[in-house]
Records
---
Amino acid sequence: MRTRHAGAAVLAALTALTLAACGGDPDEIGADSTTTNPEQTEGGGGGGDSITIGIKFDQPGLGYQDGSEYTGFDVDVATYVAEKLGYSADQIEWVEAPSAQRETMLQTGQADMIFATYSITDERKETVAFGGPYFVAGQDLLVAEDNTDITGPEALEGKNLCSVTGSTSAQRIKDEYAAGVQLLERPGYAECVTALTAGQVDAVTTDDIILAGLAAQPANQGKVKVVGAPFSTERYGVGLPQDNDICEDVNAAIEEMIEDGSWEEAVTANTEGTGYTPNSSENPPTVDACA
């Protein structure tokens, strides 16, 4: 893991001034940066070290930026794990991790860890490593609160379904469950929910916890609900560089979060008022062995 050593930087700067000598940029993260020992920095005593964590900035209930505040289930899990690694909340530098850039961010050192609805797949394991999973999601449907007709993807025959441009989730329903469904694309899921509450579509589809996060927003509460019949499995992992040495510590932190009740509290806090409950046959998850 890459870290910045603020104390060392200050000392180097003072030395440079005293000796009137030229020195390197104290903020530069070089190849000789040392890895933080979690045992030495327990409780945030990292001596000025920081950790860079990638999250989504536009997924309410999971990873969401509002000014200088970051909220959501991914943020809560990331904060818990970071603290167990020895970093206090104010030592975390949050960076946006768009889906298409996650592997590059880990490979180039732009992020030390990524918590961004990052599904564990064999293909991704060829370039990055994973801790976790810390949650198992499934594709589901969001419908109007008073809707009783749509109980699963098969019930969408002849209905209007919204998903985000470029997503494969809506097309999957058309291909595998309801050939007669009419697909509507919008730039983001917030726009899909707006279409749903306006009666322009009958349902919205993506991962269930993403839908629950949208339903939990004050503007949507009492208007929409998650059907609660997931029909896929998406195992959210912690993205790590392949040459990391903290996977075991990350897994231990996730297990502790589950055992002490903090995991369940985080799920509830970020989906409250939606009627959503995680798939109990998959959650809480069991972490994979680190490769």
Note: Residues 2-48 have pLDDT under 50 and may be disordered.
---
Amino acid sequence: MGGWSAEDIPGQRGRVAVVTGANSGLGFVTARELARGGARVVLACRSEERGGDAVDRIAAEVPGAEVESARLDLGDLASVREFVDSFSHGRLDLLVNNAGVMALPYRTTADGFETQFGVNHLGHFALTGLLFPLIASTPGARIVTVSSMLHALADIDLDDLGSEKGTYRKWVAYGRSKTANLLFTHELARRLSAAGSEVVAAAAHPGYASTNLQTAGPRMEGRKGAERLVEIGNRVLGQSAEAGALPTLYAATAPGVRPDTFVGPSFAMWRGSPATSWRAGRTRDDTRSGLLWAASERLTGVVYEGLKD
């Protein structure tokens, strides 16, 4: 993977991709570079206005780009179903589960789930499952889920997936949601293999990329000083969104990516070109991934066709 850049993305002409949270940051760069490669890209965004603006920006930067936006609120399972019901393409070569929230004060989704677990994991679990029949019927399809090096902060608690017991700790809740992303990828890859499917499920993380993800929590809490410190940290320590998106783009497009691969920056999981990344051993635990899968099915009501345990 050494030195891999966006210029190494293989031609994407004829392929259809969905990128969640594509109106800004890593998602925007991912969508733009896939479009530059020739893919038809659907920007799945919570805000229709911001999604439309992102389409216009990509069209201005990439003449001839085939891009469109569609509303998707991962914190509302009804919205997830509406997005899938309205999806009009006859194939889906690539689903990039990129959208996410970080270290927010305690809130719940429209369905009553703690927001970080609900958006980062359950929303994407439901979206992937509802789109799965189309993905499974598309040769060479991939599913890439964006996790974080901060999955190391916390394991999931199967008895408290919604962080409802005891004192809510926003960073622990975030770490749990990112661990859930990796357990989901592991279990999905395992089930795909058992079913004899050629769909590849992989994961990626950006290291420390400077985006608006880090400032959302302090802004929501009204902590101006903390928001300012985060902005300074982003400028001094973070790499650009262009660099941070490379692991996702590698996992999504590079030849030979193996199932359950976790791709991140090469230098200390922090920055640099894409490389196979360290991950906590618990994220490859078949028992825990199976139990999380079963709980996710129960909570979302989404069962993956053809991928029974």
Note: The radius of gyration is 18 Å.
---
Amino acid sequence: MTIVDAIAEPLPRAVIDLAALRRNVAHLTALIAPAETMLAVKADAYGHGLLPIAEAGLEAGATSLAVLEVPAGLVLRAAGITVPLLAWLHGADTDWRTAIEADIELGISAVWQLDAIAAAGADRPAVVHLKVDTGLSRNGATREQWPHLIDAALELQREGVVRIRAAWSHLADASIADDETSLAEFRSAVAEAEERGARFEILHLAASSAGIRMPEARFALVRFGIAAYGFSPFDDTTGAELGLEPVMRLEAPVVEVHVGGTTHARIGIGFGDGVPVLGIAKTSVLLAGQRCRVIGVDVDTMLVDAGSARVAVGDTAVLFGSGRDGTVTAEKYADWAETIADEMVTGVAVRVPRVYEN
């Protein structure tokens, strides 16, 4: 077997189709009207790039943004994003004063967070979304803690330290029956808060799953995450069947070609770039117009069997993409890797350049 050619620096890339993102957001926004779209851009917009995705989503009809941590919100504010912006995962080192003065709205799950806001000494009230746990157990006040959270927030509102804007929660999305139970629990928690004197400007509960299939859970807005990036939140339905388009295409060049009884091509991307090792024997890439079986993967390359295809160094192999023209989607690749599309796209390493197409 002879190495025909080689190049020294493989350059994988994640190509981000901003037009597809806009179409997804517009489609979802039309679906849930008159509720509004809050676009979730946590985890660097699911690996797609925080600022370009935020800007494209707002152009397409999203009216607010959700991040996880305050620092990501500050990046958006520094870039000139002025729409309502919610951050809800806080730690002991959260810069509460900077967040409040940057007009980042804060998801609040515990009294200690309200105490930290009061101690921050900001020159304006903190806008807060009070979160109750309705069964997901991710965060949020339990029903036992909820009255204390409401009372503490009301006291700080009377003092001018906070402004209570919303009550909210997450659904577990385990089943329709579970979500209906959680919806009833949320309504009960809101009613209890109102009995104690709270008045909410908005309520929000649904993310991608309930936003699509559970109209009664939409309230004022839906927090769309993975659906906006082109993937289904359901096990029994693909993104394409929901009218969605994948936004990311992951591709890499051929860096070596070995010619023998069959052609083996080495591709410049590996598990160091986020390619899953689990299920690798099931996977294939699109190369030279055909599906080529993956033989193995190492830290920064993978080897594929190109059969009799005419392959040259510098040719492009596509791991996942739109699902058209012979490519598979990240949903399909995730099936091979026994994971989910969310993990496929967020797992693409930071060292892989993001290249944007409008």
Note: Residues 1-8 have pLDDT under 50 and may be disordered.
